[in-house]
User: What shape does this take?
Amino acid sequence: MTVHEIAEKIQAEVIGDGGISIHSVGKIEEAGAGQISFIANPKYLRYLADTNASAVIISNSIAGDALPKRKEMPVLLRTADAYKAFLQVLQLFNPPPQILPPGVHPTAVIAQSAEIGAHVRIGAHVVIGENCSVGPETVIAHGTVIGDNVHVGEKTILYPNITIREGCKIGSRVIIHSGTVVGSDGFGFAPGEDGRYSKIPQTGIVVIEDDVEIGSNCSLDRATLGETRICKGVKLDNLIQVAHNVVIGENTVIAGQSGISGSTKMGKQCIIAGQVGIVGHIEITDNVIIGGQSGVSKSLTKPGTYFGSPAKEHGRALRIEAVIRQLPEILKEIEDLQKEVAQLKKAKEATGTP
Assistant: This one.
């Protein structure tokens, strides 16, 4: 593919020889002849001084006089969003692999009452239960188990060894990676007088809306009653726990090893970093960012960035938290006292008072 052909697909202006042939994509500091790379952040412009890439995508916002001087500059492709353009080029040279061949593997076990759409691909040892429906062009890879009364939309990809428990609903264009369980029982137990716990029946379901991607080895618990709901466009990393009756709003992204306790409602367009713990029965509004390893213990009602939560003994932690909340006022009082002390010392020195 020539530089000109690439430029047409990403709507870029070519500066240099557009007839150069490109065979692959490379990192700016490692790319060689015949490869294309990108610079979206000006702080990486230093790599442009000695990269061996034949072509480099850069943002229109990077001024010409900011470019390093060199005898033979790579061909530049200027575009509005270099990172987005690079992702397009990456897909051009690395189309998604074919997960399964067309058709249904002979070892798959599919209930007669299940409705399977056109052009669905089903791998080896897949089990699909009674009264299920699977939309057109969906891929269900080896070893995946789908319980009774499950609905899966169209063009969804279920990678190997996933479990979708009974009654759950999966939307269209959803991607779920290996090892994830959708619809496991919520963590519900009632303590008895004898100290033993009785299991609370978990009778609800999990609903995953369209265009969601869920990483590997996640657990999405079914609701005690009603639904656990993952709304449209949500992206979950690997190793995430979503407890019963949780709702995650549209286009929220959550990084690995985070956990959300039961009945918490999370808003739209939130960003949750890794290893965040969120208690149950709270609400988080739209457009909230929570820093890594934070512990959220109460509702967050205002958009913004939140961080912190050192784990300590509960009573002590509450006392410390109460003091921390007053620190700005305490600091102001200390500063005022320091000024008063300084003034008293100055007055004593001026009068010679011992």
Remarks:
- The chain has a mean pLDDT of 93.
- The chain has three helices and 36 strands.
- The helical segments are 3-10, 82-93, 314-351.
